[in-house]
Amino acid sequence: MVHAKAAGAWGHFEVTHDVSDLTSAKFLTSVGKRTEVLTRISTVAGEKGAPDTVRDVRGWALKFFTEEGNQDFVFNDLPVFFVRDPIKFPSMNPKPKGGSLKYVKWHLKPTGGIETLPPDVAMRLAGEEPNYHIKDLFRAIEKGDYPTWTLYVQVIDPKDASNAGIPIFDDTYTWPHERFPLRPIGQLT
User: Fold this and answer.
1) Is there a contact between 161 and 133 (Cβ–Cβ < 8 Å)?
2) Which of 7, 30, 49, 51 is the most exposed place for a label (fewest CB within 10 A)?
3) Mind listing the pLDDT tens digit for each residue in 67-122?
4) Residue 100 CB: number of other CB atoms within 10 A?
């Protein structure tokens, strides 16, 4: 089983930049708009009792509770997916019902930066406190020290896709930031 060990937390998403040129989704089209969210962060390989300090990919599930219905997203926290076979990821690009179509890749980046445990500390904690990261998250929330992430998107117009220099629907590639810059949308708390 994958993603067996996880923690969830309620929070909100607040739009900080106008992206009405990209979407008509109401929860994303008004600067300052807040939407309730539920986030589930998990380890990928570890079983339910496994320590969360070992090196592992982290999975995300993010549910936005919007006035237009729930919007669900799933992520992994690595730039290039480890399954190196793009055929296993069929395109999920429906035909637009109106307006224009854009290809978008989402990025959630921690506003506090990325911190890692030294290997010896991670190993010690794996034996002493196998739920270290989960407890750290809940202790921070209890203190009001809420973790935050900035949501960015990269955007490719379909007419530019063939000149992107990479197969853009292949999850084993990262879209080059110099050609397709990160565009901020908002903050997840």
Assistant:
1) no
2) 49
3) 999 999 888 776 666 666 655 555 444 455 566 788 999 999 999 998 889 999 99
4) 9
pLDDT at residue 41 above 90? Answer: no
The reply to whether 3 belongs to the active site is yes
Task: Look up the pTM and report it.
Answer: 0.85
For Cα atoms 134, 136, 140, give the angle at the middle one, nearest 5 degrees.
Answer: 120
**If DSSP codes are grouped into helix, strand and coil, which group holds residue 140?**
helix
Rounded to the nearest 5 percent, the helix, strand and coil shares of the chain are 15, 30, 50
The span from the CA of 80 to the CA of 84, in Å, is 9
Cα→Cα distances 100→8, 95, 140, Å: 35, 10, 42
CA distance 97 to 87: 27
* Residue 160 near residue 103, CB atoms below 8 Å: no
Tokens of 149: 């992430």
Catalytic residue among 12, 17, 70, 76: 76
- Told to judge if 17 belongs to the known catalytic residues of this protein, a careful annotator would answer no
Tell me if 157 sits within 8 A of 179, measured CB to CB. Answer: no
Cα three-residue angle 158-83-185, rounded to 5 degrees: 45
Provide the 10 A C-beta neighbour count for residue 45.
14
25 phi/psi in degrees, rounded to 5: -65, 120
